[in-house]
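Notebook entry, structure prediction.
Reason for the run: the old model in the group folder had no record of what sequence produced it. Starting over properly, with the input documented here first.
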Amino acid sequence: MILIVDDKPENIFALKKLLEINNYEVETALSGEEALKKILKNIYSVIILDVQMPGMDGFEVAEAISGFNKAKDIPIIFLSAVSTDKKFIIKGYSSGGIDYVTKPVDPDILLLKVKTFHRLSQQTRELNEIHQALQEEMEVRKKTQFEQYLKTKELKSILETIPQITFTANAEGNIEFVNEQWYVYSDYKHVFPEVYSKELPVARFWQNIIISQPQLPLEVCLMKQYNNEYRYHLLSLIPVKEEEVIVKWVGTFTDIHEQKLNKDILEKRVAERTAELITANKELVLQNNEKEKRAAELIIANRLYSFLSRINHTIVHSEDEQTVFNEACRIAVDIGKYEMAWISILDKVNKKSNHVAYCNISKSDLELFDDLSNYDGGPTAYILKIGKRYVINDFEPEPENSNAKKYALLRGLKSGIALPIIKSGEMIGVYNLFSSNVNSFSEVEIALLEEVTRDISFALDIFEKEKLRKVSENKLIHSELRLKQAQAIAHIGSWEKNISTGNELWSEETCRIYGLPETENKHTYESWKSFIHPEDMDDVMKIVKEAQKRKQFGLLLPY
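New structure, fully documented this time:
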């Protein structure tokens, strides 16, 4: 929905009709206060706001809107007939507007801007919805992970509080206390139970724990003293801290012999569950990546669409080559978001570039690319040699002695493209675009840029044909003038006959020969016969029949 704010009903009526004819839903407000009330209740895709209004003017309304969280991103187009001064326009932009239209309003321009901002607003809303969906999914994942963490912590606490063998040690690792179960596996308080000979001795493991202080469980196979039976235990070590300093260790050996015997079953179940979790996580990652990819593609598609649309609009409304060249460079930087752009016309004889249009690059910098005799002329020189588009998606690997690379690194440019401009089937120039990002020119973007260049080339052909048409038209007019002069001098008349209608168009000299005004120059074959003297009719008809047989029509008219 679009909101029109203007204190003059006649202005609102005209704008509303214009937008409704183009299938836009429109609401109106006759003051800034009324507009703010409606903005608090409704969601609008575009606001068309008159600057000069009694009470709150357009700038004050825009500043108030920018303070509304739900409405601060709504595109605002200012309307004013007061001034197009730079300071006046800057005030509009600083107060929250994103575009500016002066009165009287050009309907085509306004519709183009409304269409663009309406689409941008819709796409922004879609991006926000995607972002919200991603946030909700992340919250679900966090909640799930936290629940898993609590369950793991609870299970760990239970295992730690039901030990089979318990001991404590000071910060240096000297054992201070052991329970009765300790002596089932060791004869002495300060000697760790004997472990299976192929495993790491518990005493060495304990020394590693004191040095590195990790909280890692250790699976050991302990031997009972009275019958030499080995049983699997899990050694757990927990540091007791005071003010982040370890003051004591609490250790437990938990009998896991039965669990160990069921190792294959447990490992199988764990493997199955792990595979399920991995699959579920991969699916979730793929879904998130796909949504992020769609969001990124939507942004790129919007930029490229706006770029192509503005270029085509320029071509349609331009009358000469220079205007197309200038706008193509400006639109590439302002709408296409390229770092810089320029168009060069090639002097193939002298191997020089004539830079006829450029944006965001100085004339002195362009002189670095004048020479096309070697590759130092940059992408333009390459394209002259290979005869087709040339793309550099990363300047870094380019030769160190390349002027193009030196300039690119100095200006922070990462990638560039040069596209041939064709006129009458021959390459006459190059469209150069540069970006501050690596790999800016994907296959999709290259295809679109080639389409833009083809459109520019098509426009050049149209301009050339129009120029030739005017030359031919002037020659025809001159030729007709000379024919009239020749007929007047020779006193010879002529006429043209439309075979399908039978009507004849007489020349000025023919009318004069028959004593008629020049305005009475439309006749038929029968009306022409009425001018022939009855005594001459037979002779004239004989001449006409002979000419028809020869398919050559000509007749000498007596003067």
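Summary: The CA atoms of residues 204 and 210 lie 10 Å apart.
The old model has been moved to the deprecated folder.
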